[in-house]
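Q: Two folds, back to back.
A: First:
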Amino acid sequence: MFGETGSREAVTAAISVAITKDRVSEKKVQLDLHKAGILTAAVDFGGEFISSVTKMIERAVVAAKRENLINESHADEGAVAGAAHEALSQIVNKAIGLNIGGKIAVARCGEHISVAVFFGIGLLHLNEMSIGVGHRVIYDKDASESENYES
């Protein structure tokens, strides 16, 4: 069932990149995933949660475009934005009114795109850790046509 590359791989890849502790380990994980055919992008982020939601979504989209995970199309950008919004909505109850710091990671595996956020949430050194994940599918007409020909 999970032998085909898809949503499970995209989600686990995004989480794997998001939880890396530094740039060196991030780049190593990204290289290993690239060898497996999974494209990734990551960006660090910190600030007050509520006032930064839009900025975090924008940074996920920009990182995905910068690393060529998506094209500059409404559908591709919308898929990343939607997945990022979903990931952030999963941590909002812990983060509301507090500062956050951590990483946003995007992974693409075929038509599947996932965004994972891994943040320390709190005040000064009194942090709660939280992770959120969102997933979307970007329809690839060319891939679908080739699958139909193989059937």
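A: Second:
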Amino acid sequence: MTQSPPQLADHCNRCGHDQPGGLDYCAHCGRPMYARPTGWHPRTWWRWTRWFLLHKVLHVDDTPHRIALGLAVGIFVAFTPTVGFQMALTVLLAWIVRANKVVGVPLAWITNPVTIPPIFYFNYRVGALIVGSAGRTMSDFAIREGPWWETVKAWWQVLVDVFWQCWLGSLIVATILGTATYFLSCWLVTVYRARHRRQFPGSRFDAQGRPVAGQAPNPQQAEGSPPAARS
């Protein structure tokens, strides 16, 4: 008779609840249980995306407003022609508007060597509709290979020739996308946390989706314990 291997138990570091291994969430407080993915490959993009959304957006210790504002700042900066400085600029703007500084930083990689030509050519065309065209093509916005500083210099030399068209179009597109990101993500985080609060008895979110200070009590430890004395 073949015996099945023993199932390892998972211990929640937030509430101290022990449960069978392999579950995605703590059965008591609802904390995501699976670890951060290792390595990077195009086939693992969904695991990384899921891990980021759960750990760095939906379950981050911050309010829906500050999370949504941080995401909006990240999207806004990603669609501006500030290549080479986008991550630092995202942190600075998030600090100025008192948004979450963590959630917006990875969004700077939306504009990468593959996506920069179509994104900023589109922004350039939007600006050219208003102030006139400078006769540029999509290939002019491609990132040249070479050291980081030489690449940034080459990018900014192209940007000087189409300064008004590219900046005006980028600000228009970035403002529209950033505003939409704020309202959509604020609604999604609030709805997710309200559902999370109903589903898990030890959820640390209140009715408005704000994190509650302190750890959720562990039902395994609470059984048989005497009631706390009132002051």
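Q: And?
A: Residues 62-209 form one domain.
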